[in-house]
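Subject: Predicted fold for 1-alkyl-2-acetylglycerophosphocholine esterase, 179 residues

User T.R. writes:
Posting the sequence so we have a shared reference for the thread.
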Amino acid sequence: MFRWFRSSSSSALPRPSGAYTVGFVDYEWSPPSSENATNPPSHVLARIYYPSLPVAKHDPADPIESGWSGRSHWIPSASYYPGMEWGRADHLGYGYYLKMPWYISSPLFRLVAGNSAIWAVENAPPAQIDEMPAVVFSHGLGGIRTTYSSVCSDLASHGYVVAAIEHRYFVRWDEPTEC
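User M.O. replies:
I've generated the structure tokens; pasting them so everyone works from the same file.
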């Protein structure tokens, strides 16, 4: 029953309002560094949204009703579901901000958002535009690089290149006085 509901509960995030279709690519920069306990890795992961040429094979004009199988998921990996990041049930996630235990928030979030599609095509050819202003987007709110996919896709549909940076390292304070 759960499997049927999950497969039939697909939804799409809001459609971008601009003139361009949207492409994206996930990119990780790995600068040379010496990694040790006092110098953690400094890898930077970002999802780059950009105006793209229409891709007929994967046209996301209506990813749900057309049965478009090439759509990209809003949440790129199960490891991002609340409370389950990096395989640790006690880790921060959306459930932490909702004050929910991970064993409730993780299945609930998977059910509600696990099959949501974004209005962008991975590795789509970029549009031929003379100028594409750049935007660096920082998600905040305990999110990930795809949390604001609707906002970033909308900006890209208006001709911007948007780099949504993922904040991979965090500091957790258990006492407000430590902040």
